[in-house]
Amino acid sequence: MYRTLFSIGGVNVDSYYVIWAIALCLMMYWTRRRCVSSYGISFDDASDVLLWTIFGVFIGATLGGYLDNWSRYTDSPRSMLYIWQSGVSSGPGFIGGGLAGLYKLKKLSLSVNCFADAAAAPCSFMLFVGRWGCFLNGCCSGVATTSMWGVSFPQKPLVKVFPSQLFESFAALFIGLLLVLLERMLHRTPDRVSRGAILWPNFLILYGAYRFAFDFIRAGDRIIGLRVGQYTGLVAIFVGAAWLAFSIVRNRRNGKIACGGARDAA
């Protein structure tokens, strides 16, 4: 595909990093805007939480990259020192970002539910855009296939594989559109959101489901028959379902809780 977009002074600018950087920036901008305009969280507080979240995402995604390619490091443990070659994994990235964001939200006495629902649709569209970087780079591809869905990458031009990057991209787009529609149908107000998130739990359930399903046709190392993304997908489904059930119960109660106040429903 197009691993290198262009070169500057002999330095290659890779499509993977450019597209994922654009996806992350769009997610941060849109999430912060939603926090301020719809969820009662201040610009500065939203920015602080997002910075912590992104830091956690990079840590989690990098560690996940090691697990995703563990056979490479058992063969050559020294290669673990080359962090820029480790790759990244979105599932562990969400876990790392979630833990870091949760810590900062608690420190600032902000509503976890409000921030989570503000980030749900932006995260879906981030994955939709970012996975195109994976496709152009040829990473995160599927297993070999002879079906009509098969594509060839320059790294292995004679082998056709499932374009799992595109499957995941369009799945994320569907989830994002569904969440936007759901938000409009429910007419959620900040006080109702603060009592229990709805969008983020649904995002976790749907994201976990497509990761678990699509990783069966994705190439790479497996641990007891499953990829790391499938284990994190199962965790996401469980957490999302429990969170959604808790939110439905809490939303039936009366009373108001401010998204930017000291009380937090989560």
List keywords for this structure.
single chain; 266 residues; mainly alpha; two-stranded antiparallel sheet; two-stranded antiparallel ribbon; 9 helices; 4 strands; 64% helix; globular
Explain the overall architecture.
This protein is mainly α. It has one domain. It has nine helices and four strands; from the N terminus they run ββαααααββαααα. The strands form two sheets. The chain has a two-stranded antiparallel sheet with strand order 1-2. A two-stranded antiparallel sheet has the order 3-4. A hairpin with a 2-residue loop joins strand 1 (4-8) and strand 2 (11-14). The protein starts with a strand and ends in a 15-residue tail after the last helix. The relative contact order is 0.15.
**Order of SSEs:** EEHHHHHEEHHHH
Pairing-aware structural class of the strands and helices?
mainly alpha
Could you describe the largest sheet, including whether it forms a barrel?
A: 2 strands, antiparallel
N-end to C-end Cα span: 44 Å
With strands numbered from the N-terminus, the spatial order across the biggest sheet is 1-2
- Tally of separate domains: 1
The stretches of 5 or more residues where confidence is low (pLDDT under 50) are 262-266
**Mean pLDDT rating:** 85
Number of helices: 9
Assess the beta-strand content as a share of residues: 5-15%
Radius of gyration in whole Å, from Cα?
A: 19 Å
Helix coverage percent: 55-70%
DSSP strand tally: 4
User: What characteristic shape results from the CA principal axes?
Assistant: globular
